[in-house]
Design goal:
- The complex is a heterodimer of chains A (378) and B (529).
- Chain A is mostly helical and 378 residues long.
- In chain A, 69% of the residues lie in helices and 2% in strands.
- Chain A contains 15 helices and 4 strands.
- In chain A, the strands form 2 sheets. In chain A, strands 1-4 form a two-stranded antiparallel sheet.
- In chain A, β2 and β3 form a beta hairpin.
- The longest helix of chain A is centred in the middle third of the chain and has 27 residues.
- Chain B has 529 residues and is mainly alpha-helical.
- Chain B has 2 domains: 207 residues, no CATH class; 270 residues, ABC transporter involved in vitamin B12 uptake, BtuC, CATH 1.10.3470.
- Chain B contains 21 helices and 7 strands.
- A 5-stranded antiparallel sheet of chain B has the order 4-3-2-1-5.
- In chain B, a hairpin with a 2-residue loop joins β1 and β2.
- In chain B, α8 packs across α9, α12 packs parallel to α14 and α12 crosses α19.
- The N and C termini of chain B lie far apart (89 Å).
- The chains are: A mainly alpha (378), B mainly alpha (529).
- At the A-B interface, α5, α6, α11 and α13 of A face α14, α19 and α21 of B.
Chain lengths: 378, 529
């Protein structure tokens, strides 16, 4: 007689056949079609991709990385972070200071120091920017600073079993405190103007069409890379434990797992992804200031993930594109309606679309059922 | 001998001022010397005139301070409303051609003002004398001594007499006679005035006599120790004042979040609605009842409460009731509501801050010590917070509605089995919490800006208070609000406002690591919920 053996389900393929097809298509669009439409097709043509659109899409792809990171921690692990704006901004500030140093003596004050430091009468670079001259060190800091902060914060928070809303609220407090700190002039982060007026990266001018396209492609590749990484994480055993923690943390503990390590790992990975997104965002948008850390910014990241569909990986990316697309369209055509729209989106998604756009696409009947329940008053 | 002379001259001058009339102490030459020449000689003349001053001198100095004096033909004129008059006789005169304005530099202006203050010491009205003494505190000019002696002799009010004695002592501190200095230092030790401290410190730098020096030291430490209490109490009071604002802001949340478990991110916007309701009531009073304008605030209170409560009830019926038990979803939905409310206010009242005036009875303050004044609006807000707290505690613990609210939050199915209409109780409770937010908004409109983002500024603080206090605990909320307020103000004394705020947030984060359930943890089964 055969011994009953508890078997784990067979490891899934990273993506299905059609999934890979879509992935390759996205890769081709980012690396070949978009550059071709922007650089080769003449400006008057119908198919021309304007510089404005390239900048906008690049920016939204950065946001999509954030949404993906948010989904890993919220959609898959059930921890709603209101601090991801801080990690995003930290990555952005690291890159921003490198770009400030790249300006060299071309600033308004012709000084070795960045303009805002001359203006505030700093005599030398403060210690915490000592590494900002080196591109390699900056790349490391972009990942390490948010990662380290997330590790320290998460270690203590998860160890004291802070969860649910409590965790959300203290991450918000952390972000708020950091925002106040960055607003100060004497902390060396440029005060409320932040860092801007960038000129070059790696000695090459920043404001050229080809540099813009290079950054666009880099962002797209990072997004696709992170998507694969997230896919790998959530389909591994690690990812299954995360989802178990989300659904019933108590049972996970009773089954002999210590959730702290799992939660901490995904929390740090998610923070690092946001840092990278911030670093890609700053050279494309050309400014970083403390308003990126405002509580509103972090909550908006949650809504990107929720609109697209929590607990799926393609959902947050779709959500980031839909919400931010609507934002850039509405804030231009009807600025007073943007907040109404965003507010209504928050309410509608939580009430009617718990599984987001992806949920409706997968099962169109679910929306009708939710609406019917809602009319009955549940 | 010297003293007797002083006394006599003082007595004489008092007689002169008391029946001032025919005796003109101000001469035309004096007036000219004060108005004309270089600053040094003018000041000399001024000092001389002050020692033998009368009402005319005062009027002339006032005119000088108001830039209403001209000089022409070797004579000084007071020119008011286009009419020139003689400073000595008061008779109207024709202004000679080419008369020039008297220009006072800052030094001269300061001298004139302190001379005027010294003259006011002789005023028959106690109020004027009190102010004059206040203005002269910290004055160290020996030349005003005769005048001061005169005033001291004439003073009848005991408190003012002591104060005058202190002013005199701080003047004598500069005297050449070391015995007098010693005496003055001893006398100053009883002072409780911040100005005395500077006078003592200044003298300490110059003093060479060791005995006087030690007397000065002793006086300084005694003054400082009496000032320390004023400073400390001041810091505690501003801490309590901040704490009671936090309490007002958090009390509503203590119901909606603490009892009902709804993460209401729109709480700040409900306060904003209360503040705008106050603004509207103010406008109504200004147009229709301008006579009763001072009392608009009393009418604004119920309006603020009801408008916020109505909005709250509508929110509960339309959105929040579908989300009970899903706190993270409520967080997002109420955030959406807050955005909509903000934009609605921005569309209807404009994006700029609106002006809400304090009624006149809220301005001013109570002077408790020389360096401790409690502004009325702060005192009233502290009292108001306590009143709201008492009202809410009564409502929750003593009334039927309170019983139902507690019952429903503790065990919904059993409460329903007992025949409680739980859905209705939820609506009432949420409306109550929202109404209290409206009251908080009404209070905030009296001390800060009223604008569409009023709520955003307080929402993080409000949640901090509730979380630190312990969810579901009214007492915890009170302790947390007052504690955080006082802590914040004390840290501000060391580090400045923003760093104090940051360190308080960091301390809260650390505190929550230690006590994740707040100061007062819920016990039993509900703790894990």
């Amino acid at each position: 007689m055969q011994d009953p053996v508890l078997q784990l389900p067979k490891p899934q393929a990273l993506l299905t056949r059609s999934g890979w097809a879509v992935f390759l298509l996205a890769l081709v669009v980012v690396c070949a079609i978009a550059p071709f439409l922007n650089l080769m097709v003449p400006a008057g043509s119908f198919f021309h991709l304007s510089d404005y659109m390239v900048a906008l899409l690049g920016k939204i792809m950065c946001y999509a990385i954030c949404a993906l990171a948010m989904d890993l921690i919220w959609g898959y692990t059930g921890i709603l972070s209101l601090g991801h704006g801080l990690f995003f901004a930290l990555g952005g500030y690291m890159m921003g200071m490198y770009l400030m140093r790249q300006i060299g003596r071309d600033g308004n004050y012709k000084s070795d120091l960045p303009d805002f430091m001359v203006f505030l009468d700093w005599k030398e670079l403060p210690w915490h920017w000592a590494l900002s001259d080196s591109f390699v060190a900056t790349l490391a800091l972009v990942v390490l600073v948010p990662g380290l902060l997330a590790f320290v914060f998460g270690y203590f928070a998860f160890r004291s079993r802070i969860k649910g809303v409590y965790f959300s609220i203290i991450t918000q407090a952390m972000t708020f405190a950091a925002m106040l700190l960055f607003f100060r002039n004497e902390t060396g982060f440029g005060g409320n103007n932040g860092f801007t007026d960038f000129k070059r990266i790696l000695g090459m001018p920043l404001a050229t069409p080809s540099m813009r396209m290079v950054l666009f492609i880099l962002t797209g590749l990072t997004l696709l890379g992170f998507f694969l990484l997230a896919r790998y994480l959530v389909s591994s055993k690690f990812g299954r434990v995360l989802q178990a923690i989300r659904d019933a943390e108590g049972r996970v503990m009773f089954s002999g797992y210590n959730p702290i390590g799992y939660k901490l790992s995904i929390w740090v990975i998610s923070a690092m992804m946001c840092g990278v997104a911030g670093a890609l965002y700053v050279p494309q948008v050309g400014i970083i200031n403390p308003s990126e850390m405002s509580p509103a910014q972090s909550i908006e990241m949650a809504i990107w993930a929720a609109v697209g569909g929590r607990g799926t990986l393609i959902g947050p990316i779709i959500g980031a594109f839909v919400v931010n697309g609507a934002k850039s369209w509405l804030t231009v055509s009807a600025p007073e309606f943007w907040l109404y729209f965003l507010g209504a989106l928050f309410i509608a998604v939580t009430l009617f679309l718990p599984a987001g756009i992806v949920g409706v696409l997968r099962d169109p009947g679910s929306l009708l059922r939710t609406l019917r329940d809602f009319r009955k008053g549940r | 001998m010297h003293k007797i002379f002083h006394f006599l001259s003082a007595l004489l001058l008092v007689c002169v001022t008391l029946n001032s009339g025919p005796a003109w102490a101000l001469t035309p030459e004096q007036a000219l010397a004060i108005a004309n020449g270089d600053s040094d000689s003018r000041i000399q003349a001024l000092t001389k005139a002050v020692t033998q001053a009368d009402a005319k001198t005062a009027a002339f100095l006032q005119a000088l301070a108001d830039d209403a004096v001209k000089v022409g033909d070797g004579k000084a004129f007071i020119v008011r409303d286009g009419k020139a008059s003689d400073p000595v006789t008061g008779a109207e005169l024709a202004l000679p051609d080419g008369a020039e304005d008297v220009v006072n530099n800052n030094r001269m202006r300061g001298e004139i003002e302190s001379a005027l203050a010294a003259l006011k010491l002789l005023s028959p009205e106690i109020q004027v004398r009190r102010q004059a003494i206040k203005a002269l505190q910290g004055e160290a000019d020996l030349n005003k001594l005769p005048l001061l002696d005169k005033a001291l002799a004439a003073e009848t009010d005991a408190t003012l007499k002591t104060q005058l004695g202190l002013v005199r002592a701080s003047m004598i501190l500069g005297s050449d006679d070391r015995v007098q200095r010693l005496e003055a230092a001893r006398q100053l030790a009883t002072s409780r005035n911040p100005g005395t401290k500077t006078v003592l410190l200044d003298r300490l730098k110059l003093e060479e006599d060791p005995q006087v020096k030690s007397a000065l030291q002793a006086a300084l430490s005694s003054v400082e120790s009496s000032l320390v209490w004023g400073d400390r109490l001041g810091a505690i009071f501003s801490g309590i004042s901040l704490g009671s604002i936090l309490l007002l802001v958090a009390l509503g949340l203590a119901i909606t979040y603490g009892l009902m478990g709804v993460i209401n991110m729109a709480h700040g916007e409900l306060m904003m609605i209360g503040a705008y309701a106050t603004f509207v009531v103010q406008g109504v009073f200004r147009t229709f009842f301008p006579g009763a304008f001072d009392w608009y605030l009393l009418a604004a209170l119920p309006v603020a409460f009801l408008s916020a409560a109505l909005v709250g009830a509508a929110l509960e019926r339309s959105v929040i009731r579908f989300l009970y038990g899903r706190p993270l979803e409520t967080l997002l939905a109420t955030w959406g509501i807050s955005l909509v409310l903000q934009q609605a206010v921005r569309s209807s009242f404009g994006a700029q801050n609106v002006g809400v005036e304090n009624p006149s009875w809220m301005s001013g303050g109570v002077q408790l010590m020389d360096n401790l004044q409690l502004p009325w609006n702060r005192v009233i807000i502290v009292a108001f917070a306590m009143a709201v707290l008492a009202g809410m505690a009564f409502l929750i613990s003593r009334t039927r509605l309170g019983l139902f609210v507690r019952g429903v939050t503790q065990n919904r199915p059993i409460a329903a089995c007992m025949g409680v209409n739980t859905a209705r109780v939820d609506t009432y409770a949420f409306a109550l919490g929202s109404g209290i937010a409206g009251l908080a908004g009404c209070a905030l409109s009296q001390i800060g800006n009223v604008g569409p983002d009023l709520g955003q500024a307080y929402i993080v603080d409000a949640f901090m208070v509730v979380v630190v206090g312990g969810v579901g605990q009214l007492a915890g909320t009170v302790y947390a609000a007052l504690g955080l307020g006082v802590l914040n103000k004390f840290l501000e004394g060391w580090t400045g406002a923003v760093l104090a705020k940051i360190s308080v947030l960091v301390l809260i984060i650390i505190f929550i690591q230690k006590r994740p359930q707040g100061i007062f943890a819920m016990k039993g089964r509900s703790a894990e919920a």
